[in-house]
Amino acid sequence: MKVVLRAAFAALTGCLALTGVAGGAIPVFEARVVRVFPHDPQAFTEGLFYLNGALYESTGLEGRSEIRKEDLATGKVLMRARIAPQYFGEGITAFDGRLFELTWKNQVGFIYDLATFRPVGQFAYPGEGWALTENGRELIMSDGSPVLRFLAPATLTERRRVTVTADGKPLDDINELEWVKGQILANVWMTDRIARIDPQTGRVTGWIELSGLKALAGASDNIDAVANGIAYDAKGDRLFVTGKLWPKLFQIRLARRPDAAR
Length: 262
Fold this sequence. Notes:
Blueprint: H1 6-14, H2 16-19, E1 27-38, E2 45-51, E3 54-59, E4 66-70, E5 77-82, E6 89-95, E7 98-103, E8 108-113, E9 119-124, E10 131-134, E11 139-142, E12 147-151, E13 158-163, E14 165-166, E15 169-170, E16 174-180, E17 183-188, E18 193-197, E19 204-209, H3 213-217, E20 227-233, E21 238-243, E22 248-261
Parallel strand pairs: 1-19
Antiparallel strand pairs: 1-22, 2-3, 3-4, 4-5, 6-7, 7-8, 8-9, 10-11, 11-12, 12-13, 14-15, 16-17, 17-18, 18-19, 20-21, 21-22
């Protein structure tokens, strides 16, 4: 999720099998590109969602973190708000006319008026903040661990938690989140996969394979230029994905692999 040291990445790669990313009889779906859109290659994407015809994106890195409203077709930034340079911006979501933003290690989140990006409040939480989405009743938060937190939108108090598992093993490094048709989609940091998660049990019910999209996007070989960012247009039934520092954003459709599981 963050700026990565190569040694840390090597250690992470070596333990993927232990976290459930590599194994088990979980169905795998390939991402087939439907359409390609421009995306800011300088955007260190941390959060993404689609609402009322526009994309909303949050970017990370201290001194560069901001929230944006963007035109999908052109990638043009229509509105933006920066946060103070000591904060590393993280996931965002919208609920009841407000936009909520996490920060990585500061244990503070910010609340904005969705229409104007005017700050209207903030909230505190323990641990790290990685990503946010919402299910129409609650905000759903990831913190880099296998745990997802469900928050009351009015008070930001925690209602419950669920532990995400794949093949019975906890799944670490759950990153950007999106609520799609009753399931949670989540990027798994430093992998080319999205987990489809049952919100009641936490069980991974499928993998979405994004292999090849980074190259197709024309992204650099920067180790931080990983797949991250999922947005869903519920009215149009369109699913979008991108990555940190990727020059392109993709509308995709899912096709189940012939071997069904791996």
